[in-house]
Specification:
The chain contains 16 helices and no strands. It has about 425 residues and is mainly α. Helix 1 runs parallel beside helix 7 and helix 6 runs parallel beside helix 8.
Length: about 425
């Protein structure tokens, strides 16, 4: 939870600094960040697979398999980090065209992404190590790494965007450099914590072996596909926003809304991580009843926290939006985003947390299918229908987000209650 709060603060301050550069810069960073997240989709596969397998080994007290799983996860993360960074430089600038941004926002997105992408290998390493730590039941180490990364990011933003302490004012390029530096700082901190611990042998990456590739990625790839589905649908959703009458203002309002809403849904990620580790450990100890209790308890706690925070950003929506922009149109759209999406936040809590529980059990395929239904079958077509078919413009897109989030929660509750995840082998 503390790590989530730190990450939320990071997003808040980053958007505040970038927002001072104008709506085009805000839209550019929003799009660039989405595409950078796309390169991390496979990193999440390694992280999810490592958490599920390590948690099972902890529950079963199988130390040898635990050591192999952790070292293989780190080795696979390193190889994929380099490969996907190179691929990102080849493909992502072309993908930016699909957004249909206005010329100024398009240029800002390209400038940001060209430098921020340098941090992608560190992101892979950081996520692979985080998966191991969480499988061990240690969420403090990733929290400390998040704090270090956040401090580097915010200080870097302040110094490099605006040119403080004698440094040049780099604007959007400074934001990209700051992001890359923060990812390397976080990865270095996480690796150091493992190296200087009693589990030093887990910090040494092993040359990836095909049998471990299959074992880790069999669990992790559906989780990676979830991220890919979400990110690609976000590209389409942003394209719909760009085509509305509000245009760039709507695209600029989206990252503001997402950042402010993160006050609610980042704790949901925290409970999903807890559920993933605890469900995996309980299944490793062959205690299915305890695993089920962990899943539902985490989901209800997540719902309580996220509902409380949803009330906060509903009531103070104007104040939150005002932190990021002074543009009246962008601010009004961001306020509408926050108040509409607050309505289904309790169901979103169940969706997020129970997806984590399923992934911890190794049943990430069902979570992937649910994400596909939510994003591509419900959200994108509904956004188009409401925005253009009914003429609700950007407000219709916001309603599509809210309704699809509610649908996701109900679907995940049904899948977890069914109980098929208890029989998955890792």
């Amino acid at each position: 939870m503390a790590a989530s709060v730190v990450q939320s603060a990071n997003s808040f301050l980053d958007r505040m600094f970038v927002g001072r550069l104008g709506a085009e810069a805000l839209a550019g960073v929003g799009v660039g960040s989405q595409l950078l997240f796309l390169t991390m989709a496979l990193a999440m596969a390694v992280s999810t697979g490592a958490t599920a397998i390590v948690a099972r080994m902890v529950g079963a007290n199988d130390r040898e398999s635990l050591r192999h799983a952790a070292r293989q996860a780190t080795g696979i993360a390193c190889v994929l980090g380099v490969a996907f960074t190179l691929l990102g430089y080849l493909l992502l600038p072309q993908i930016i065209r699909w957004y249909g941004l206005e010329a100024g926002a398009d240029a800002q997105a390209r400038q940001f992404l060209s430098l921020a992408l340098l941090g992608a290998p560190a992101s892979f390493l950081m996520m692979g190590l985080s998966g191991t730590f969480r499988g061990l039941g240690d969420t403090r180490s990733p929290m400390y790494a998040s704090i270090v990364a956040t401090v580097v990011h915010i200080v870097g933003d302040y110094l490099l965007i605006f040119g403080k302490l004698g440094l040049p004012a780099l604007g959007i390029r400074g934001a990209g450099i700051a992001m890359a530096l923060s990812l390397w700082a976080g990865a270095g901190m996480l690796w150091a914590q493992l190296w200087f611990s009693a589990r030093r042998e887990l910090a040494v990456p092993a040359l990836p072996v095909w049998s471990w590739w299959k074992r880790i990625l069999r669990i992790g790839l559906p989780a990676s596909a979830r991220t890919f589905i979400y990110t690609t649908s976000s590209v389409m959703f942003t394209g719909i926003l760009a085509a509305t009458a509000a245009g760039t203002a709507a695209v600029a309002a989206l990252p503001i809304g997402l950042t402010a809403e993160s006050i609610a849904f980042m704790p949901g990620f925290a409970f999903a991580i807890a559920a993933s580790a605890l469900v995996g450990q309980a299944l490793g100890a062959k205690n299915e009843r305890l695993a089920e209790r962990f899943g539902w308890t985490a989901a209800w706690q997540s719902c309580a926290v996220m509902t409380t925070m949803a009330v906060v950003f509903y009531v103070f929506a104007e104040q939150f939006a005002g932190l990021f922009t002074t543009d009246p149109q962008v601010k009004a759209l961001a306020v509408a985003y926050l108040r509409i999406n607050a309505i289904t936040e309790p169901l979103l809590a169940f969706g997020m947390t129970l997806a984590g529980a399923l992934q911890g059990a190794g049943d990430s395929l069902k979570a992937m299918a649910a994400t596909f239904l939510t994003q591509w079958v419900v959200r994108v077509p509904l956004a188009y229908l409401l925005a253009f078919g009914l003429g609700w413009d950007a407000h219709g897109a916001w309603w599509a987000m809210a309704l699809s989030s509610g649908f996701s929660g109900l679907l995940m509750m049904a899948l977890f209650k069914h109980g098929g995840w208890k029989r998955v082998k890792v």
